[in-house]
Amino acid sequence: MNSPINPFTVEVIRNALTAIAEEMSLVVMRSARSPLLREAGDLSSALTDANGDLIAQGRDIPAHLGVMGSTVQEFLKRVPAAQLSPGDVWFLNLPEVGGNHLPDVKAVRPIFAEGALQAFAVSLAHWADIGGARPGSYVPEARDAWQEGLRIPPLRVFTAAGTEHEKLNLILANVRGAREREGDILAQMASTRSADERLAEVFERYGVATVQAAIRDLHDQSEAEMRTALRSLPPGSYQGEDWLDDDGAGDEVPIAVRVRIEIGDGEATFDFSDSDDAARGPLNATPFTAAASVFYAVKAIAGPDIQPNAGCARPLTIITRPGSLLNPPLERPVVGGNHETSQRIVDAIFRAMEPVIARRLTAGCSTTSGLLLFSGRDPRNGRWTTLYEVHGGGEGARVDRDGMPAVRPHMSNVMNTPAEMIEANYPILIERQALRRGSGGAGHHCGGDGQVRVYRVLAPEMELTTMIERCRIPPFGLCGGAPGATFRITLERACGETLQLAGKTSVRLAHGDRVIMESSGGGGYGPVTAKQI
Amino acid sequence: MARSWKVGIDIGGTFTDVIAVNAEDGAVRTAKVQSRSSDPVASIASAYRAVDIDWADVADLMHGTTMATNAIVEDRLAPVALIATEGFRDTLEIGRQNRRELYRLEVTPKLPPLVPATHRLEVTERIDAEGRVLTPLTDTEIERVTKATEDLGVPAVAVALQQCFANTEHEARLGRRLQTAVPYVALSHRISPEPREFERTNTTVLNAALMPLTAGYLDKLEQTAGDSTNLHLFHSAGGMSSIEAVKDRPLALALSGPAAGVAAAGRIAEELGLTQAIGFDMGGTTTDTCVVIDGKVQIGGNQRLAERPVRQLMVAVESIGAGGGSIARIQGQAIRVGPDSAGADPGPACYGFGGEQPTVADANLVLGYLNSERLLGDSIRLDPQLALAATRKIANAFNVSDQEMALGIYRIANANMARALRRVAVERGIDARACTLIAFGGAGPMHAVALAREFGIAHVVVPKFSSVFSALGCLTAELSYTEQHAVRISSTAWQADEFEDIRQQMYARLARPLTAAGHALDSLQARHVALIRYAGQSGTVEVAFTPPADHNALDAEFKAQHQRLYGFVTDEPWELETLRLTVSAATGNDINVPVATAAPATMVAPETQCWFDRDRSVTTPRYPRETLAAKQKIEGPAIIEDQWSTTVVPPGATAWSDLSGHIHIDTGGAA
User: Fold this and answer.
1) Is the dihedral of CA B350, B351, B354, B355 positive or negative?
2) Mean pLDDT (chain B, rounded)
3) Partners of residue B419 in chain A, C-beta under 8 Å
4) Residues 145-204 of chain B whose Cβ lies under 8 A from any Cβ of chain A
5) With contact defined as beta carbons under 8 Å apart, do A374 and A455 qualify?
6) Are the CB atoms for A283 and A335 separated by under 8 Å?
7) Mapping DSSP to helix (H, G, I), strand (E, B) and coil, where does residue A514 land?
8) How many CB atoms sit inside 10 A of residue B1's CB?
9) How far apart (Å, rounded) are the C-alpha atoms in residues B573 and B569?
10) Is the pLDDT of residue A532 over 60?
């Protein structure tokens, strides 16, 4: 309240900035080409200030939103501000540039006013393919980062003068489905352009100095609110751990994420140093993903209404050990770490806090993308297609209610693709989509049920890749509630053979084969009471 | 005088508005009465009494209602059975699997399904994406599922089978049989013939659940009105519908009330020759905004009602939970306004019904915009002390004056509404600055100029009859029917003849009820819109055309609009996805009440103190709207008020009334 500008102007500018970020996502969904963006909405939008500190975000995907600020900060270490010009749109996906995994490609646009750099607009979109060893760019057997696809360091693809066609062509030559990808790239460009135009109006209306002062105020407000929120947690030291089923490398050994949390006076430290060493398979997570997960967990536990921006992160210290699962050597593969290991981090934090604030927590959810990737040629039109489909499962129970069935929890919020859209666009028939009744964990309140979906292959051949957790280690119960059922993928060959598929594998499918997806249930809360028995 | 009145009535949640015009002598009467939510026919009767008209005097009743919306919002829906394809009865509960709140764990991630598992049945049959029958629907199976539905004892059943829009035979056969066993049947290929099973099922179920309620009401209305009153209902896409059509498809009433307001805004825009306008309807709890281009209301097909997806053509209204009752509160070091609302009960603190939290209306009273001397309607007297006490509570926390806090609340409420305005403009690719803002609803005229200045809008219109504006929309709207049809013709395989055939068939279908109502075929107007996109996009661009459609003209217009919306075009082929056609006939119910042209010789307006900046108040005259003469210029600051609404003309703005009684305000450009 010591600001040079009044709090009402700050609130008015906050509204304007949030509207810009929301509009960016709308532009991508309306103009992009791949179903993953236009049907399932696997995308996010954000604005940062000239230093890369997050100002505003759309209502998108927490796993994306947590890394957007780091993306610009790391980008600026490699591309000095002096090299940036109005109208630039830079593309990048390198995990070490504040990233998460290769398929999430960011378009970064510097925004100028009064002749100086003022802000960045970032449009992140999950590309349905970024090259690499397998269609869809999920390679369960990958043992190094280069097998995972095209690695794009900051690359200026658009300038005020137009498209840099040589660079665009280099990208398109290295991904499957080049035409669809080109449409998606243009949609991301269009989204940053709308942010540029809208921000120009805001700067013109309020003046650059006022807007920048408002942004500083917003950061300070969020910082103060986060400190207040942290003071609502009992001070002390807490430890928790959770395990990945395995890293897909064939060892079938669980891998631990361990956290030590120190809650101080309006601040908190999350130390992941005791987590296991980096995995051989693609389940490593970048430190930026680890930070995004902590940011999500703290906000969900203590301050859901706080305006999400860089100020929220100031009271948080996050430590990851170089060489560990959460700070891997650069050559290690990471594609699954983004949405699997990130969820393990949230679960480990929840389990650490269970002894003191169980009433605020949700029991273990189906914390996995449940990803199935089908690719193959559609016999109806000869086109190469890749279906990237994620599957929600049971929500964990809470102190005052049962969990709900078939939802995406925590770090993700990607929608499903309707069965009718799948059948129209891919050589697949959906034979069944139903709740997986009885899969939620028992308890005083029960966990939500998972779901079942049956895919029948209608092409002569297809390839299936899985990237799924909770196949062996079930979603946990809280305070004595029972765990939910584990995730299960069954392949019924047309020839009559039936086999259970691993959570991270690739397999060839033939016409008439059926893939049965059964997602995990949520954990229960509290012991089953006598009345219920 | 018998049967000489044409009446427009809009039944809202709180008030019922009426406007009646006498076909013989042009007399106009208006009134606003309390709605009786339990008995809408009683609301109409009470409105008739307020304008001193008897049921027997009414030749035409044009009627809009929020009945359907309120039934959905308040969860007063009839129990429904759902029949889905075998393997798919849980689609309704799975939904799209995303959660509504990213960070709020305590909030249930989805709404519960509209039909519980016990009432969701399956039928053995299957059709594929190309419309081929994979599993036939047998007569035995039809009998089995009909029996099972009867056993549930529900009044209504919804049928939503997979891929039914590609081949309607299974749904149609099942529907025919069910009609003999269950009072109300809704078939998804008729209610929402498009892919995406969750959205289509939801839309169909909502429709089925509204059928008993709506039919009961409409039967009663028909009986009460008698044979010689023509009844018309205002539907969500912005035109009139017959009673019979609405009984089949009550969901068409979902946005009936807002659509009528939008239609009235369209008429005003047309009358004043405005090419681009934004309708701004601010009420007690919600604000509806919409875009009007060349007097035509914009329509969309992908919207939500009470958080549930609804796939049908409706006016493109952006609704936000901000209004006069929105509550201001402190969050940390910030101040937020809404989305919580004091609603009608307890209402804003100044109503004196026990509300203690400061609202936007309280801020308006503290600033002197609202008049504490006047009764709101006939009943509510505003108490400035209560408003001040509520505002002061949070003003103290910020260490600012009461007036500065009130101004802050006023500005933040405007910023919230600006976000909604931005969204409707963006969705339509419109530059808001080039628009005229047409303000109505109880609070619209109070905020209009300040909001317009946020956008750099220069011109605001507060139309005559602004406080019964939706009723006016019902009365003056054209009779229109709209339909859209998926055509999916690629630019590389342009089929001019086939397209023209489809168009002519649609035209014939839409014109039939109008010619049946006595309108000559050559007096009808048609509006054609092609929805075009690049192959693979989900969003389409609306391209208006005059038939026969010219491939090159469509190409040029599509690309020009795509460039404007997204900043790029490519040489790829495009796809004409859908043809939308509206056929309409004028009703001739225009209202023209001339306004006195000479200003009263000595008009002394009472003066009050109003706050427009935080440092000082200014002496502000308060004009009763009915005393304004045409062309009389009023320099801000000034307040213009009638019984139900208050127009604020801040310093730097100039207002005048035109010959028809519409108030125009030059905002003085962007602030």
Assistant:
1) negative
2) 88
3) 15-16, 18-19
4) 162-163, 195-199
5) yes
6) no
7) strand
8) 12
9) 11
10) no
Query: In chain B, positions 435-494, which contact chain A (CB-CB < 8 Å)?
Result: 456
* Residue whose structure tokens are 């940062």: A48
pTM, to two decimals:
0.90
Give me B207's structure tokens.
């429709």
CA dihedral B370, B374, B377, B381 (to 10 degrees): 80
**Bridge-partner residues for B291, per DSSP?**
B278
On chain A, the residues whose CB falls within 8 A of the CB of B404 are: 6
Which has the closest alpha carbon to B595: B657, B644, B655? B657
Identify the DSSP state of A468: -
| DSSP assigned state of A341 | I
- Residue numbers in B near A33 (CB within 8 A): 534-537
Q: Which residue has the tokens 């609804």?
A: B310
Chain B contacts in chain A segment 290-319 (CB below 8 A) = 296, 299-301, 304-307
Reading the block at residue A221, the tokens are: 């407000």
What is the pLDDT averaged over residues B443-464? 92
Contact A404 B198 (CB under 8 A): no
- Identify the burial level of A358 via C-beta atoms within 10 angstroms of its C-beta, where 0-12 means exposed, 13-18 middle and 19 or more buried: middle
- Please report, as a single letter, which amino acid is at residue B380: I
Helix or strand run (H / E) with residue A46: strand A43-49
B609 forms bridges with which residues in the sheet?
B619
**pLDDT at residue A4, rounded to an integer:** 63
ipTM of model? 0.94
- Compare CB distances from B426 to A12, A26, A305 and report the shortest one's residue: A26
3-state secondary structure of B314: strand
Q: Are strands B617-624 and B638-641 parallel, antiparallel or unpaired?
A: parallel
> Structure tokens of A422?
């799948």
B563 touches chain A (CB under 8 A): no
Which residue in A186, A224, A391 is closest to B333 by CB distance?
A: A224
Q: Quick check: A406 and B95 CB within 8 A?
A: yes
List, for residues B373-384, the tens digit of each pLDDT value: 877 666 678 899
Q: How far apart are CA A215 and CA A65, in angstroms?
A: 18
Let me know: does A516 contact A430? Beta carbons within 8 Å.
no
B562: left (phi over 0), alpha (psi -120 to 50) or beta: alpha
Region of residue A438 (phi > 0: left; psi between -120 and 50: alpha; otherwise: beta): left
- The shortest CB-CB distance from B196 to any of A1, A7, A420 is to A420
Q: Which residues of B touch A15 (CB under 8 A)?
A: 412, 415-416, 418-419
Closest CA to A154 of A95, A43, A78, A81: A78
Residue A467 · residue A369 · CB < 8 Å: yes
Residues in chain B: 671
Interface list for B 293-332 with A (CB within 8 A): 331-332
| pLDDT tens per residue across span B91-112 | 999 999 999 999 999 999 999 9
Neighboring chain B residues of A404 at a CB cutoff of 8 Å: 108-110
Q: Are A361 and A332 in contact (CB under 8 A)?
A: no
B384-420, pLDDT tens digit by residue? 999 999 999 999 988 899 999 999 999 999 988 887 7
Please indicate whether, in this complex, the C-beta atoms of B334 and A221 are within 8 angstroms of each other. yes
**In this complex, do A225 and B332 lie within 8 Å of one another by their Cβ atoms?**
yes
- How far is residue A413's CA from residue B217's CA, in Å, rounded to a whole number? 41
Handedness of CA A295, A297, A300, A301 (dihedral sign): negative
Tokens coding A367: 């914390």
Residue with tokens 């895919």: A455
Contacts of B566 in chain A (CB under 8 A): 27, 30-31, 186-187, 190, 193
